[in-house]
Amino acid sequence: MKAHDRLSSERQLAEEFQVSRMTLRRALEVLQVKGLIYTKPSSGMYVAEAKLVRTSDVTSLSEVMRHRGAHPRSTIHLADKVKASVDVAQALEVEVDHPVYRIEQTFYDNETPLATETSYVNAELARGLLDLDLTQSLSLILKESFENPIVRVRYRVRAVIPPERFLNRLNVSAHSPVLEFCARGETKRDRIIFYVVSFKRGDKYDLSYEIEVEEP
After folding, report:
1. Which CATH architecture has domain 52-207?
2. What would the mean pLDDT of 39-53 be, rounded to a whole number?
3. Best exposed site among 83, 91, 156, 216 by fewest CB in 10 Å?
């Protein structure tokens, strides 16, 4: 079935799969929790759009999209060298006014904008970054061109209403769900090399976490 197709009634589905209504309802609950279907009050259940799943072991959006078989593309809005603001300096653990590269770009899956982000890279650790193809994965560039592989990325995620220019890039209204990802990438030398602020369409993302509890 395609996204937004309406499912048959519970009675029809139970008959088709030869299961009880209770078993069917439990199955539908599982599908809804996984984000595969959704409900419209007084209308029924429908097939949900595919979501982009981001896992904690992937360090860039383009890597996530390739992992799920998509063909990502991006638009670079600006790429320059600026002085670190107070917030950026704190995130990168450098002095205020320290030189950093700033890159703004929007990522697409086919023609659908999924995320728009601003990356700040410590210019001292990646000299000449702006001369490279910035549509590639930033983590891959830092590893292959500057021998600074990323060994750890720390994320903070929250729901926000971003500035209007980012809403326009995502082609969503101010009332649409938007997730802000703030990520800091660390190298083997325990240095923060990049700080990225991403605004991602909440209707295209499903966040999954796994917690392993050690027994005492």
Report:
1. 3-Layer(aba) Sandwich (3.40)
2. 79
3. 216
Closest by CA to 199, choosing from 213, 212, 180, is 180
Alpha carbon of residue 179 to chain centroid: 8
Kindly give the residue spans of alpha helices, DSSP state H, lying in the chain: 10-17, 21-33, 61-67, 86-92, 138-146, 164-170
| Number of residues written out for the chain | 216
C-alpha distances (whole Å) from 195 to each of 104, 110, 208 are 12, 27, 22
Q: In this structure, which long-range contacts are made by residues 204-212, counting pairs with CB atoms below 8 Å and at least 24 apart in sequence? A: 204/49, 204/51, 204/52, 204/109, 204/112, 204/114, 205/51, 205/52, 205/53, 205/54, 205/179, 206/35, 206/51, 206/52, 206/53, 207/53, 207/54, 207/157, 207/179, 208/53, 208/55, 209/56
* Both tokens assigned to 189: 């030398």
pLDDT, tens digit, for every residue of 73-95?
889 999 999 999 999 999 999 99
What's the confidence (pLDDT) of residue 61?
A: 63
